[in-house]
Specification:
The protein is of the alpha+beta class. Helix content is 27%, strand content 34%. The protein is globular and about 40 Å long.
Length: 172
């Protein structure tokens, strides 16, 4: 499975392959189930953090523009690190966008990581779902840093875990 050069599912942003990356998967499950796994904290806790690297200690999804996107992660038995952002766009079963550059309520964020804006688009394809995760960066340097730091690899692992989690739910 390879990353597309440009997202094509109902995008409302300009994809720049120098500053952005996208990860696309076909999930053999209904779009409603993919949306549920993407947006319900109990499901996010199952797939968001690559299992080889750590775990989700807490997840909160306030699904409205300005609402909290929070996924605290922990490595091993260590303390949890907050990962707090703000939803920008919520279109059930079509699009979900959030950014680490804002805290809930659109308050400017304070952080020490490379900020991103994440956009997930979904569309029904037959009985399955076409899923595209896109990470937008401020600059080519930020994107390259995220590609080489393990962020990109970890995101691919998390997306694969999402796919597997949805397939298990679909068999349910």
């Amino acid at each position: 499975m390879s990353a597309p050069q440009s997202p094509t599912a109902s995008t409302t942003f300009a994809f720049d392959p120098k500053r952005d990356f996208a990860i696309e998967r076909f999930i053999d499950a209904p779009i409603a189930l993919v949306w549920e796994a993407l947006t319900k904290p109990e499901h996010v806790a199952e797939w968001y953090m690559p299992k080889a690297w750590g775990r989700v200690a807490y997840a909160e999804m306030d699904l409205r523009p300005g609402g909290a996107f929070r996924v605290d992660i922990a490595v091993g038995d260590g303390a949890a690190f907050p990962n707090l952002g703000c939803f920008l766009d919520v279109v059930p079963q079509q699009r979900l966008a959030w950014t680490s550059m804002l805290f809930p309520g659109y308050r400017p964020a304070v952080f020490d990581d490379i900020p991103i804006t994440a956009i997930v688009t979904m569309e029904a394809v037959g009985r399955g779902t076409r899923y595209i995760f896109t990470a937008l960066h401020r600059s080519e340097a930020d994107c390259e840093a995220n590609r080489t730091s393990g962020f990109y690899q970890g995101t691919e692992m998390a997306v694969d875990q999402l796919v597997n989690h949805v397939l298990v739910l679909n068999r349910g």
